[in-house]
Design a protein that fits this description.
It is a single chain. The protein is α+β, with helices and mostly antiparallel strands. It has a single domain, classed as Alpha-Beta Complex (Diphtheria Toxin, domain 1), CATH 3.90.175. Helices cover about 15% and strands about 30% of the residues. Strands 1, 2, 3, 4, 5, 6 and 7 form a seven-stranded mixed sheet that branches. The radius of gyration is 15 Å and the shape is globular.
Length: about 150
C-alpha cells in the first residue's frame, strides 16, 4: 500500500454539489457491493469526464466538477499489477446477467487488508487514473474548492 495526498476531481449531479464528499447514490458499482459507501474520483478533470461518459444520456441531470483533497495512508495501487486491465473490465453486463462483478475481488481484498481505497487505470484511457475511497468522510476527503458547471 501507498500513501496518497493530493487533489482529485469528481463529477456529480449538480443538485448534489453542496455535498461533494457524499458517497455515490448507485446501489453497486465497479468496486462496491450494494450497501457499501464509496466515492469515485479521478486524478484529473479530464479523467473525471472519461469516467462518467458511459453514464451520460441526453436526459441525464446537469453535472458539476468538484475538486477534493485526499489525505490517505493506505491506498492499494492497482496500476502496479502485472495486468492492471483486469481491474478495468466492463462489469455492468456481467451483473445484469446475474454474475458478480469480477472487479469486486480487488476491492474486497483491499478492504480486508485495511485499505482506505484504490488507484486504478481508466478502462478506456489507461493513461488516466481513477481513485475509489471506501469511507469517504473527513479527514480522508474534503472539498478543496467550489463546484463548477461541466462541461
Amino acid at each position: 500500500m501507498i500513501a496518497f495526498r493530493g487533489l482529485v476531481w469528481r463529477l456529480i449531479a449538480a443538485e448534489r454539489a453542496e455535498a461533494p464528499c457524499a458517497p455515490v447514490s448507485s446501489p453497486e458499482g465497479r468496486f462496491h457491493h450494494s450497501g457499501e459507501a464509496v466515492l469515485y474520483a479521478s486524478l484529473t478533470p479530464e479523467g473525471a469526464g472519461v469516467a462518467i461518459a458511459r453514464y451520460l444520456t441526453p436526459d441525464a441531470p446537469a453535472r458539476a466538477l468538484v475538486p477534493l483533497a485526499v489525505a490517505a495512508d493506505r491506498i492499494v495501487d492497482l496500476r502496479a499489477l502485472p495486468d492492471p486491465t483486469r481491474a478495468s473490465v466492463v462489469w455492468q453486463d456481467l451483473r445484469s446477467a446475474g454474475a458478480p462483478s469480477p472487479t469486486w475481488a480487488f476491492s474486497d481484498a483491499a478492504r480486508r487488508d485495511g485499505a482506505q481505497g484504490m488507484l486504478y487505470p481508466s478502462r478506456s484511457r489507461p493513461d488516466l487514473t481513477h481513485l475509489v475511497l471506501f469511507d469517504p468522510a473527513p479527514p480522508l476527503v474534503r472539498a478543496a474548492g467550489p463546484a463548477r458547471a461541466w462541461p
